[in-house]
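Typical record is below.
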Amino acid sequence: MLFNVAFFCSAALAVSASNEWRAPTASDRRSPCPMVNAVANHGYLPRDGLHISLEDLIVAFTDAINLDPAATTLVGTKALTTGNNGTFNLDDLNKHGVIEHDGSLSRADIFFGDNHSFNETIWAATASHFTEPTISIATAAKARKDRLKAAEAANPEFSLPADLQQFSFIETALYLSVFGNLNDGNAKTEWVKTLFQEERLPFEEGFKRSDDVITAAAKPTINMPSITAVTIFIFGLSAFNHGVSNLISPRKALAAKQLQDSALPALNGFSVAIIGIGIYYMLAAYQENRGFFTLTLARFISARIFWLQGPAWRVIATWEAFSAALTAVALAYEEYQGMYA
């Protein structure tokens, strides 16, 4: 009993009075992001959600969760484009296609009208994956992927460009890193649910700000932009296309190259979590597109058969071989250059 009282008191003292959780008032502005809202609800950001600068964001996320300023700057710079004169209000982040994107884990798509309020139905589908005391990288990635597939099926205007797909990876990696560890994820399920459902940092449940910076500085063995580039390179501009029609085109190759050259620094942050999510996406895409790889192999074989039929067939044979070779070489090059270089 004494231990429980002591623990409760120490947890309460860990959060100063200025950072105690308070529900937003009717006039306070809030964003579509549970983590941002929680930081505001604890007073690390202005509780009214108004006139927030990049410096405000950096200080708030450093104080609240010890997030590396470089990672905050990556997202914060985008956030500032939604406001005016170097600041923004939290509800400015409702603007679609800047940071807010289709396929949120807890919000509806803009197509359905309200893209910023907590949606119990959508969150319930996401949370149904979280059946264990902790959430692994693979579980978090599957929850993300299944939500995006459901959103794509429900929303006739569903769109998730490459840059927003990267942000969706970062969002998942962030809660894994904040409420788990930087090596293998394993975020505490109770804490993650508290964040999404109450927009509250789970100090009362035992959460403490990490002593280690959640950094964007470490360079992982496998580079995250390359993982997404390979996924786009093979499966088109969406990782959710199925079947055998996703042959590489100049448009897809250019998109992959632009992504590869973007060098967004924080994509190397939360390294294991983001890499794990990216690898999961690639493996899942492979499982759902085996026919594509089968077709590639079949094209090599058919090219040989057509060639042997004589000169009249050799144009077809050349095209079949070229298509298959382009696919195979592009994949091998991207894997070597991006993932293992």
In short: The chain has two domains: 2-288, 291-340. Strands lie at 134-136, 185-188.
